[in-house]
Queue: 3 jobs
Job 1
Amino acid sequence: MSTSSKLSPNNSGPLDFHVLLEKKEIWIDNVLPFVGIGHYAFVGAVNKRLNQLYKEYGQTVQNPPEVWISRYFNKKRTATITDTYYRNAFYNVACAEHWFRDDTVSKTPRQSKVCETIANIGSSPTSVLQWARHEKEFPWDAQTCRHAASNGRLDILKWAHDNGCPWDPSTCICAAEHGHFHVLKWARENGCPWGPQVCWGAAHSGHLEMLKWARENECPWNSYTCSAAAREGHFEILKWLHENGCPWNELTCSSAATGGHFEILKWAHENDCPWDESTCAFAAKGGHFDMLRWIIEQGGVWDARTCSNAALEGHFEILKWAHENGCPWEEGTCASAARMGHLNILKWAREQGCPWNEFTCSEAAGDGRIETLKWARENGCPWDENTCAWAAMRGHLGALKWARENGCPWDAAACSFAAGGGHFELLKWARENGCPWDMRTSAAAAGGGYFDILKWAHENGCPWNERTCSGSAGSGRLDILKWLRMSGCPWGRDTCAAAASGGYLYIIQWARENGCPWDANTIRVAAGTGNLDIAIWARGEGCPDPVFPPMG
């Protein structure tokens, strides 16, 4: 049977599109799964019906990925159906133009990061970067070249460099780290600077020929080169490095232990590579029992981190053996066991006399380990306000309720942590049950971009100050900042500096147009976070210069 006969009610031909839109099961089961999530700006904009269908389809998607969202170029979070992934927003020039049409520009706050993002995607054609520079005049900096090198996009790197994009040693470093030998060679042939991190990158990625070439061309190295090879298990590279005079130190042995590379550790020790307590600590953390025993047999040293790491990762036998053989421990062992809910380890440690303190309860509450928290309290473990604060910070209302029902103290930190984490229901419960709050709650809600929480807090009498405005500026939320100012919230010089730290030029521009003060910290922060376009713009607009302050 043909597709048209399946879709047509009378087998008389294809369905009209508007009729087809009413066939919900076709869209949910067949069409939209083919499209996939991450295209909301394009699919949802077709019409209201398709917008609704796309949202309903999104509810059927299990385990959505952790992705970088095109609205927040600096934030990675679990995807929702109303997101547009930046790889789709910059798939080609047409998609980019659609995304940046006038009524959607406000959804893309980090315009200073657009060129960097295009290079970072790794799949966008060069024409998209050309569009961003020529048509939209978006700024760029060395991060654009860096990301092009990371992805092996020599075409983008060439075009960017030929058209005046700055670069720095990170271009060569990323090319080496990701194994793009041809990119590294081209960059050096065209004058890109480098440093010892290039050798580190080649050793880290296991590219011996690249490493040899770098040394033949006088690239410097240091002890981190050996530690990179050891951690990643590149035995032949480590041998070559040592034979050719590359320095090493204790980090080489601890890196081998971290990666579980026993033979590398043995060889390094036999060749007089130094070690310290970190080697045992990382062997225990990784559960490498044979390695840990061997280290001690060879005269290695340990400290309390060995026990706390074993407790944290649930390596009970390692912890027992370490304690029986004289390894010291401290309160961190119990706190680590509580954090991960290893109640059997916590019980045993206490039976053996391991000390504890308030952090055991805080860690248990912070991870929602109510049974562990109950046992700890029943057995005399102290607690303090941090127990409630950590439960609130991570959204564990059950742990918070139990703690309060059993007399745990709290303070305003619980509300500010709840607001900063977006835990609205927990915050409401805390306030209903008498938890104090202060100006930190408003600042945390604004800084996290939680507009609904901020509005509710203000409506219910939560105080605010200048930090609330700087929090919204630092999170790129101009809509929140505008509302704050309309509602009478004060601001100060930190508002511009906070926006500069995130690369939000449009927020600084709006703030300045509306009388927000600034100082030299705006330029200092912008330059320090790589947002040179903001530093240049601010200086041109008369912002005080941190390097050359005005005389007189």
Job 2
Amino acid sequence: FLEKSEEPLSKITAERLGQRYEQREEILQFFNDLKTTMIIPMLSQKRLLGMIALGNKKSGELLVHEDMELLTTIANQAVTAIENAHAYEEIEKLNLELERKVAQRTASLRKTLEEKEKTQKQLVQSESLAAIGQLVAGAAHELNNPLASASSLIQSSLETISKAEKTGDDVADDLKFSLKELRRMRDIVKSLLDLSRQTQVYVEPVPVNVAIDDALRILYNQYKYLRVEIEKNYDENLPVVEGNFANLGQVFINVIKNALQALPNGVGRIILTTSYDSGKDSVAI
């Protein structure tokens, strides 16, 4: 009734409601139970939030127009306070929900980034192992040449010593050449071991010139039959850099391999230059 009328309701007005008004008795009973004579509705957008129930004045005087204006103002202020309280509670709920969603989203993003990083590491390792597998196949062929040469010369030297068909100088020359070939084979193996280490994320002092030479040694079998000239312009005073030897070695292999593949018909020159800028404390390759 109050929502529809949007006006204060007195007991006298309620008593004057027609007998046919179905809520008349209920309204009168409400007045009697509360021992009140006037009800001021508290409305918000035509929705009843509450009411102010008034009894008789102690003086016995009737409520006048000024009293009603004051009470209506109080009711309106109370409605504003209630709405603000509800709005604050709603904002608090929204903030809590937002914080919960942000926390969930952050956790999800963190998990996604961790999985992505793990996948990238696995991919890099797989690509590195695949590349090393190809290089090992070529290096194995490369190792066969000095091994065959050294084995043959050592065998020949042993036979010569036993038959004394050659002078001591000839035997010494053969053994020296065999030793040289064996050392070359040792260097190739060392390069493979350096580049095939587990590519974990750790930092170590890396001599850049040595890492490039190792990459060239590994790739030698791929360019030895090409008409390509490898020119080295190394800075001999180059400081070591902080990095990962295996990872840098793989980078140098890829760069040099790309340069070899870019040569027209396998003919040309590749210049490898290293330098140090003390002002910027940086190494250029």
Job 3
Amino acid sequence: MSGWVLAQIAVNVIFLLGFIVLWVKLRRPPQEDPRLSRGLQLLQSKISILEDLSDRTDKQVHQLNQLLEKKAAIVQEKITEAKKQVHTLERSMDKSIEVAEIFQEKIPHEEIVERQQTVKYVKAAQLAHAGLSVDEILEKVDLSRGEVEFIVSVNKEELAFDEEHLPRWIQKAKALREDNKEAQSGQEELVFIEPKTPLTSEETEKMFTSEPPLAQEMDSLKRVGEEFKKACEEFEKKQEKMEKESQIISEATQKIMNKAKDVTHKIVDSAEGAVQTAGKAMLNVGQQLMKETPEALKPISGSLKKTTEENVKKTSRRYIPTRLKKDPPIVEKVEFPRIDINDNLS
């Protein structure tokens, strides 16, 4: 019987020590895993690096926007200058056309003769379309009979050309001829008055031998032509400069955008790699912690509130063997004094 009593006492002591050790370990604050803290530090460092890179990209994009705005303003200024040059060229062209119209009758050449001939043809066609006969057209237009007959046969029912699309010089020539006719009709009505004093021979010679100042007019026309050529050359040079600048700007912007795209791709790739590595590390650490932590720690928060001995015994019976298999508690040796039954009986 004494052996069974000692064994029962030893088992009770072991159970008590195990319960005390388990209770002490459960009351201790949980220790952080160094691998988890390292993973968190690495993740924070990667996040700070990504934030720095994003700030740099934002600065570069802001600088690019400012540069593009400056270049756009420069291009706009060049466009306004080009418009001004075009306006000046148009004005000079109008002036040159006016001067040419003024002096085209005083400077005969092949083009003017052709224009005068075309004016005659147009007038003959309009008269034929109006219903006049060949003889009436010959009286009003200085053309041969064969030409007039051909024009009448072609344009009698319908004009062979569109009057709205005729050039301006034909319309102006018509207006000038009408004005000249009106002036001639007015001059015919005037009465010629003879001068009271007869003209001398010198005055008559001056009247018939004096020539118009064509040299000055030719010089002015040459100057206008030279100025027009210079303006055209300057405009072409400016256009070439503007095209070169626009090409340089487009190439620079394309290079900058390509660099920005490369940087963003690198940032995204590095961020994805860092997140993946950090996630894998966290998963590995969590799996290892789940493996290492005993299953008894999950329902302990509810079991600690219960203070009855029965629940403590149930929890000890349920969870102590699993804990002892993996991490057996340290049991100190206890020496019990020997008791002689005979001495006690005596």
